[in-house]
Amino acid sequence: MKKRHEQTQRLISFWIASLTMVTLALLLSAWTASFSHANRSQDLAVSALARVVDIQYERGVPLEQMVVWLPDMLKSYRAHDFVLLRGGEPIYQWQPKNGVEKRPVVTYQRTLRSNNIMQITLYRPKLLPGFGFEEWVLIALGIIASLVVVVAGTLWLNKEMAGVEVLAFRARRINRGEVDAAGLPLKGERPLSVGRAMIKLHRMWKREREAKLELDRRIRANTFLDSELGLGNAMFFDSRLQAQTHGDMMEGQGMVCLIQFSGLDGLPVNSRLPILRQFVDLCEPLLAEHSDGVFARRHWLELALLIPMLPLKEAEALAARLQRITTRLDLPKGADDEQLVHLGLAYYNQGDRPDQVMEEAEMALRAAQLQGHSNWFMYDKGAVDRELAQGTVRWRSLIENALSRRALATFFQPVKGRDGELLCYEMFSRMRDAQGQLVRAALYRPMARRCGLTPRIERVLMELGLQQMRNSDSPVPFSVNIAAESLMHPRFGKSVSMLLANYQGRRGQLILELNERELVQHANALAPVLQELKRIGVQLSVDGVGHTVERTDYIDRFGIDWIKLHPSLVRQLPLRPENQLFITSLIQAANLSKVQVLAEGVEEESEWIALKGLGVNGGQGNYFGEARPHQGTEET
């Protein structure tokens, strides 16, 4: 019996067995009754013979006359033998002259009124040979009718139970975590009332789920969102700026821009907001290409912009374009169009302190305001990273050369669980240039994206990771960061399938890690690719969760296995109740699925203790171990 049939086939088998047993019992009862009736009839015949002999004695008929007709009667009885006793002595004996048959016999004894004893031995009645043609026809018709009823009943019951099996299959899908199966009725389900009840319950669950997700989103939004403009608030901007630091020092280059609408001071409060909304809407296409950028509202008339890894020349060009956008605003009467907006820029480098960066940006804003008319200003620090300022042509040549030499060094950072167990690794990379120097990923990966080489790099990194895991025979999963543009590349999916065909036994170790903002932005385009990756056994992870406020319905839609909290939510977590509220809301939204919630950027024990208290499943950061080559991480 196959496991998938559950109890229905057992029920059918039990029904057939029960019906068979009842039929056999009826047949046995009928045979027993017939046999008993035959024996009873034989006993009555013997009694009748004894009465005849008694009557003959009472009439005074001598024995010599009785033996004339008695043998013929005994032959009609098909008797085995006959004995008439008087005083224990036989006075008459009879046995057929042609011999006796070898069949079971039964002996009957009757005491006559003449004190004689009659003993007659008869053959046991044959039940089946006693039936005539008509009886056999009736028996055959009864058996055929019974078989027809059994077969028809079995087919009907199988049909009805097949509907129960269909419903049970749907229930098994739900038990496996495919909750949406509850809302998808299957053809032939029985009973219909149960299927309709499941659909109704799924609709109710879905409404409650959507309401809860929306409530969680609003909780997170109210924590970090400016409700009037839909941008991040000052707390959001500060936390994202802190996320760019390591040990109170900025980790790379980038730009901070403060935008002050000084020319709106004289307007009523209700007239300022439409102008700010116009400016934000016009900036969206301009800032769309900077996926890591942070746009926030710090004060009533002051906006802030943070863009990491932005070359200096592009920062200056962006400031000029932002300045030009203000000329397209539809200003009301009373607005000072000459001194409408001032921009203060601060370009930071690795090692700068975040408070110094903000102080420099505010000083640049004051300098722009002192110039009077609408303009932008940035101090020349003279410390721009020359490598970042290189042109894209040289970067393309450098990266393609490294790819041809497979000059990518891989490092693995451990991800630990609540009890210290190793959950997985995250793979990082550095590029070795022609001089043998390692170029950090924060420098070469943005330039690779500008040159359109990101899919090639990520494909090579996946292959390197799988090779190292196979060579070391390590069963631990590892994640590789994948850009949305790579997954949407027309040839990338085919190349990944060909690569995984060479590593059949290690598909489950590979975790592809996407950025949350990119996943939400390109969800429809990514859906076919992600569903195919899940089908072949690849795990999916989403990082940067909480960098922006997004709905988390993508977890169920794409079957996400891991989500990673943005480091800005983790930094100094015990001192930030708003971040704790944000994480709590996010974990509650993820509780209905089997996704593992991890925290990135854990640096201190106090942060890890607070994260565990909030229900996070695991953590990653220097607190657990730095990223090392694979041989080093084996002991981590």
From TrEMBL:
Keywords: Membrane, Transmembrane, Transmembrane helix. The keyword Cell cycle does not apply. GO terms for molecular function: cyclic-guanylate-specific phosphodiesterase activity. Residues 392-636 form the EAL domain. The chain crosses the membrane at residues 12-33, 136-157. Residues 252-381 form the GGDEF domain. Pfam families: EAL, GGDEF. The keyword Nucleotide-binding does not apply. This is Diguanylate cyclase/phosphodiesterase.
